[in-house]
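Fold in tokens:
===
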Amino acid sequence: MGNFFGVLASGPIADTFGRKFCYCLFVTIWIISGVVGSFASNLYVWLFTRFMCGAMSLGYNNVLSVFGTELTTGKWRAYQGYLFGASGWDGGVILLGLLVYLIRNMVTLELVIALSNVPFLLAWFLMPESPRYNEKKLLR
């Protein structure tokens, strides 16, 4: 359910506030939800945080795919879908299996998964804003 709502929300938010802001916002909310969820003692709190993690994970992946499409032209658009989205997702699924095998405690596992997204916050400083969003902002 979270993935469904995350994809639906990411488009309008990214169009209104910019791809960079939306991406960084979703990663930040994902980290906070993951940390809160790892310490949740109530089932409903844990379900809500898992919903938010699902929404933010696919939402930021959607924004990143659109961002990559806007930065590339011609024949490279076919490759960008894999480079900006699928390769990270596939690598994460493979790494998750290894993490589950190595970390047997669920609380620690959820905390490691949530905090593994902290390096993506460097996008606030390293990622440029989408050219299409900048153009749209100038035309207002």
The domain at 2-139 is CATH 1.20.1250.20 (Growth Hormone; Chain: A;). The chain has one domain: 2-139. The mean pLDDT is 86. Residues 61 and 86 are 9 Å apart (CA to CA).
